[in-house]
């Protein structure tokens, strides 16, 4: 792969960049009509830059694709934006304005969604280890659903709802044995991870954890069992996993109805829709996945003789991932001789693993380009690294950059909107970058840059 062509191209940059990213004739890249040179001058670097129009279009795209596909088979869909990918007050508002609800995974995310004015009824609360305070905050906000993740939580949510004189709307999160991510999906008989309740029978061949939780939820007067929830993984590019999981969940729903007479009205099929991180990668197409899943759901319900449930999904990355890029300034550039005779150019930027932990944590691949100018210099094999005291502090493992890349150049990394800011840290006491939204030629700071004073204010000495 060489990036030489890319560096000199003008016009829309294309995948994996957001739709509002283009290179102007003067060589400077702009996002949402704002030049990165102006952004860097006004906001400094590193900075997370969010293309508002792109976010909104993807949110609408998912909502429309799923609403259309499921309307064709005769049921409705709610799309919950998974706030764990990136949640700020403005982002939650955008999601809501585009007709999405908001999925939260902690008291902090819940507080941001509420601050944004998202009605409690349109918020879900997840978590495998929710605190009493989080459950109470959710109940007090009147959340539309609490997704229960363990048998003990059935009792805890029931007790806390009882203490408030409320009936808690709950879903039970089950594990179907289907795990997906990347291009593959696997169906395993046994689960060895912390989330959800297994649909497998218990060791004695009797009811397994999922059925026991569903039966318990049906019986508790302080709980209203809305439905069953399944999330099979993240960055999934093959729809087969969603269909396999839907089959298992729908069978469980039918079995519960047979045994208790309670046919739950909702099934959530989770998030996990994959995106492109590199040029040439093909993201999951929401229209195609929606059609495939809708026809699988309809076929299984027909087979089982059960009416269709209302469906919900929880995409995070697919909405906000491509909408974001990270803007850095290049510092030290260092050629390093490799054992095989090649030279690798280490290009250090002013952030690193504190603003994007995904390369270090998952060996995630990203694409970078010089965005402040074009160059006709021969491309060199480059590794983009951060400024942390750690050799694993890699931003882009392997890429091609113009051979004249130098101190002061602006460099952007594509598709960092999801799980960049939301997983950022203060490692080496770096201050976390701002989140800057761009739209229609204007920029707006959604979350300001942290300062050293912020860090010192937390340290009580
Ligand atoms: N719903 C549930 C219950 C989830 O656990 C997740 C992600 C989502 C929805 C949203 O998944 P998405 O559509 O964004 O793939 N930090 C990792 C991803 C972990 C995702 C955890 N759960 C990463 O950076 O790739």
Task: Please tell me the CATH architecture of the largest domain by its name.
Answer: Alpha-Beta Barrel
Q: Considering the protein shown, what is the CATH homologous superfamily of the largest domain?
A: Alanine racemase
Rounded average pLDDT: 96
Structural class: alpha/beta
Low-confidence stretches: 1-6
Main pleated-sheet profile: 9 strands, mixed
How much of the residues is beta strand, in percent? 25-35%
Q: Tally of extended strands?
A: 25
Q: End-to-end distance, in Å?
A: 51 Å
Q: Cα-atom Rg, whole angstroms?
A: 24 Å
Q: Overall 3D geometry? A: elongated
CATH topology of the largest domain: TIM Barrel
- Number of discrete domains: 2
The DSSP helix count reads 13
The first-level CATH class of the largest domain is given as: Alpha Beta
Helix content, binned percent: 25-40%
List ligands, each type once.
ligand LLP
């Amino acid at each position: 792969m060489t990036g030489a062509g890319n560096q000199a191209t003008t016009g829309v940059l294309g995948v994996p960049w957001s739709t509002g990213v283009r290179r102007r004739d003067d060589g400077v890249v702009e996002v949402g009509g704002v030049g990165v040179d102006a952004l860097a001058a006004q906001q400094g670097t590193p900075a997370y830059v969010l293309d508002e129009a792109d976010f909104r279009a993807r949110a609408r795209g998912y909502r429309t694709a799923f609403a259309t596909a499921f309307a064709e088979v005769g049921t409705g869909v709610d799309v919950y934006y998974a706030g764990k990918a990136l949640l700020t007050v403005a982002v939650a508002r955008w999601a809501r304005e585009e007709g999405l609800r908001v999925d939260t995974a902690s008291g902090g995310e819940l507080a941001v969604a509420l601050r944004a004015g998202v009605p409690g009824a349109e918020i879900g609360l997840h978590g495998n280890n929710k605190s009493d305070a989080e459950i109470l905050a959710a109940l007090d906000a009147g959340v539309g659903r609490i997704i229960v993740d363990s048998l003990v939580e059935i009792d805890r949510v029931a007790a806390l709802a009882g203490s408030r004189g409320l009936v808690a709307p709950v879903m039970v999160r089950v594990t179907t044995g289907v795990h997906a991510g990347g291009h593959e999906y696997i169906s395993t008989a046994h689960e060895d991870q912390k989330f959800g309740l297994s649909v497998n029978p218990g060791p004695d061949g009797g009811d397994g954890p999922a059925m026991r939780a569903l039966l318990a939820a049906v019986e508790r007067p302080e709980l209203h069992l809305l439905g069953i929830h399944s999330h099979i993984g993240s960055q999934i590019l093959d729809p087969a996993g969603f269909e396999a999981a839907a089959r298992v969940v729908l069978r469980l729903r039918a079995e519960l109805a047979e045994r208790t007479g309670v046919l739950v009205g909702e099934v959530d099929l989770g998030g996990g829709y994959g995106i492109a991180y590199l040029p040439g990668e093909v993201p999951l197409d929401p229209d195609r996945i929606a059609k495939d899943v809708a026809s699988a759901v309809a076929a299984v319900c027909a087979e089982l003789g059960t009416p269709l449930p209302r469906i919900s999904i929880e995409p995070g990355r697919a909405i906000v991932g491509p909408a974001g890029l990270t803007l850095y300034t290049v510092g030290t550039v260092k050629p390093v001789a490799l054992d095989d005779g090649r030279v690798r150019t280490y290009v250090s930027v002013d952030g690193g693993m504190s603003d994007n932990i995904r390369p270090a944590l998952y060996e995630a691949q990203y694409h970078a380009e010089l965005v402040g100018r074009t160059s006709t210099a021969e491309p060199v094999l480059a590794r983009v690294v951060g400024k942390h005291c750690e050799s694993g502090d890699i931003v882009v493992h392997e890429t091609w950059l113009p051979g004249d890349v130098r101190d002061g150049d602006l460099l952007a990394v594509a598709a960092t909107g999801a799980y960049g800011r939301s997983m950022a840290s203060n490692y080496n006491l770096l201050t976390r970058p701002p989140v800057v939204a761009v739209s229609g030629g204007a920029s707006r700071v959604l979350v300001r840059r942290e300062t050293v004073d912020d860090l010192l204010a937390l340290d009580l000495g």
